[in-house]
Amino acid sequence: MLGLCATIVKLSAPAMPTNANAEAAWNYHEVTKHSYTSVRTNPHFLDFGNQPLPFKIYPALEPSRMPTEVRQTGVAALSAIACSVPAQTNAAPDLEAVAQLLYLSAGITRQRKYSGGEIYFRAAACTGALYEVELYLVCRELANLQAGVYHFAPAEFGLRRLRDGDYRSVLVEATGGEPAIAHAPLIIVCTCTYWRNAWKYQARTYRHFGWDNGTMLANLLAVATALGLPAKVVCGFVDATVNGLLDVDSQREVAFSLVAVGHDSDLSAQTSPPAPTTPRTLAEISPLGFETVPLSRDEVDYPLMREMHAASSLHSPEEVATWHGRSPRTHLLPPAGPLVRLQPLSDAEMPRDPIEQVILRRGSSRKFARTPISLAQLSTMLDRTTRGVPADFLDPIGSQLNQMYLIVHAVEGLDSGAYVFHRDCGMLESLKQGNFRDKAGYLGLEQQLPADAAVDVFFLADLRPIFERFGNRGYRAVQLEAGILGGKLYLAAYGQRMGATGLTFYDDEVIRFFSPHAEGKSAIFLVAVGNSAKQKP
Ligand SMILES: Cc1cc2nc3c(=O)[nH]c(=O)nc-3n(C[C@H](O)[C@H](O)[C@H](O)COP(=O)(O)O)c2cc1C
User: Fold this and answer.
1) What is the pLDDT of residues 480-516, one digit of tens each?
2) CA distance linking residue 330 with residue 225, whole number of Å
3) Angle, nearest 10°, between helix axes 95-106 and 205-226?
4) Which residues contact 207 (CB under 8 A, 6 or more apart)?
5) What is the mean pLDDT of residues 146-150?
6) Which band of pLDDT confidence, cut at 50, 70 and 90, is reported for residue 281?
């Protein structure tokens, strides 16, 4: 009944493996692949009586409400997703900006009743609308917000204060002195809760951590840009220290990424040491012991995910410092097939719908009209999505771990078929021509959406150099990057009044379809884009 790698909750601490030996990541990836057979032999079913709560609730802590007015920056979504504020720009968010960042990345933007209750849809797409990513703030004193560690409560649109005072030095230590963190007035910590997503997706949930955290970060980075705030995603940190600062039960909930927001050139780990009373290491941080409401009647544990997490954990600031540094070379071979040059819209021609409006109207398309989009629309999406993500694992900025492979069904001026996107020269290389609608539907786990879309964008990665360079933690990075790029694709589509949806897929069959070009690579994520069709009531 429980399916893949499950045991009823009995949480034991896994042995401590090393990050450098990527066997755990290879194993996790292999075991959690979907195939025609695996989906048919998996006896898992959804136990709605045991569905997890969509929110983390601290019953003893009163949230303080945040301002709900959305500030209109007027910055076009297609600009906001494509650029970032230079890292050294001095800027700090006030409470209103914090509220805006949180609302437009993880706030409740729509709700819908159904027979079993109510779904609270959030600003960013998330597998199964299960919302396993929680956000915490670690900040110095900001305008209208005291220094502290806070949990974001989307249901109340408020903040619950977990610790009083400035704890950023703990994160500076935990990230091995990462400069963006050392200079940031605010650090947002994203955690992921296994059971909230594994209730439906079982052990594959660890992949979803990257995807769902990533779509949220696409929004967060774009809103930070629109607000004039530099922001950087940080994946390298001592896990136990960050989890200890938040006092999460790390058998159930784990820090997955940090985002440094804002910059203060006067602040630095070197130039302004924290007050001697401020704890910097895990040993000096006292546990909080706040009660939280259980998510479900029972939880099912998938030890494989905790093993994957432990194997990709970093244990000291020194280990983090070596983990940081240049990205592996993941370039494509030079094009060998026929080429089509992208024709993106210029700044003057581009739709200027502001980022706030685009995020609020975003939703995952539930049905695509089989109508064509233009080559300019597709080009604009690809171009704007891939102009670089500020992240500690993408050095120099502009590096990318995933490659984009496309199945084109309906794009004016482009033959239907399979393509690979050469970002460095703005070209699509044709791999094969033909009508692959049925095939795409099959590859996207036999769903109608990828068959009806105008284009299916597959994220594929060569995991070998990534694991070689980043060890098991490279798996977190590559999934997170795909989620961020996928989230940007959503915004680029909705910014041009099209639709999009994330999708899951048959891993090995995707690689076979794009081979020989894709031989040796792994399927990481899939986003379908096109014109949304009105669904029949
Ligand atoms: C990573 C990812 C994978 C998804 N996979 C599927 C899928 O396989 N099939 C599907 O119908 N929707 C899929 N979705 C869409 C989600 O169901 C949708 O995001 C969620 O219900 C929240 O709704 P919203 O995006 O409209 O806000 C996926 C979304 C994401 C972010």
Assistant:
1) 999 999 999 999 999 999 999 999 999 999 999 999 9
2) 27
3) 140
4) 32, 479
5) 97
6) confident
385 lines ligand 1 (CB under 6 A): no
- Does the beta carbon of 494 lie inside 6 Å of ligand 1? no
Q: 3-class secondary structure for 121-175?
A: EECCCCHHHCCCEEEEEEECCECCECCEEEEEECCCCEEEEEEECCCHHHHHHHC
Length of the chain: 537
Q: Which residues contact 367 (CB under 8 A, 6 or more apart)?
A: 448, 449, 452, 532, 533, 534, 535
**How many H helices and E strands in the chain?**
18, 20
- The pLDDT tens digits of the residues spanning 113-124 come to 988 789 999 999
Instruction: Name the token pair of 418.
Output: 């399979």
Q: What is the pTM of this model?
A: 0.96
The first and second tokens of residue 231, run together, are 């922001």
Q: Is 364 in the pocket of ligand 1 (CB under 6 A)?
A: yes
Distance from C-alpha of 5 to C-alpha of 278, rounded to nearest angstrom: 42
- The answer to whether 484 touches 125, Cβ cutoff 8 Å, is no
Centroid of ligand 1 to alpha carbon of 502 (angstroms): 5
Pairing status of strand 373-374 against strand 411-412:
parallel
Q: Please report which confidence band the pLDDT of residue 1 belongs to, taking 50, 70 and 90 as the band edges.
A: very low
Ligand 1, residues 108, 118, 126: which to mutate, most atoms within 8 A of Cβ? 126
Cα separation of 70 and 356, whole Å?
A: 8
DSSP assignment of 56-117, as one string?
---TT-PPEE---PPP----BHHHHTT----TT--B---HHHHHHHHHHHHSEEEEEEETTE
Cis bond upstream, residue 335 (ω within 30): no
Q: Please report, for residues 37, 436, 451, 456, 510, the alpha-carbon distance to residue 439 in angstroms, rounded to integers and kept in the order given.
A: 17, 5, 8, 11, 10
Q: How far is the CA of 78 from the centre of ligand 1 (A)?
A: 22
Q: Where are the alpha helices (DSSP H) in 447-521?
A: 449-452, 463-470, 473-494, 507-514
DSSP strand E in 276-371: where?
300-301, 339-341
Q: Is the C-beta atom of 121 inside 6 A of ligand 1?
A: yes
Euclidean distance between CA atoms 239 and 192, whole angstroms:
13
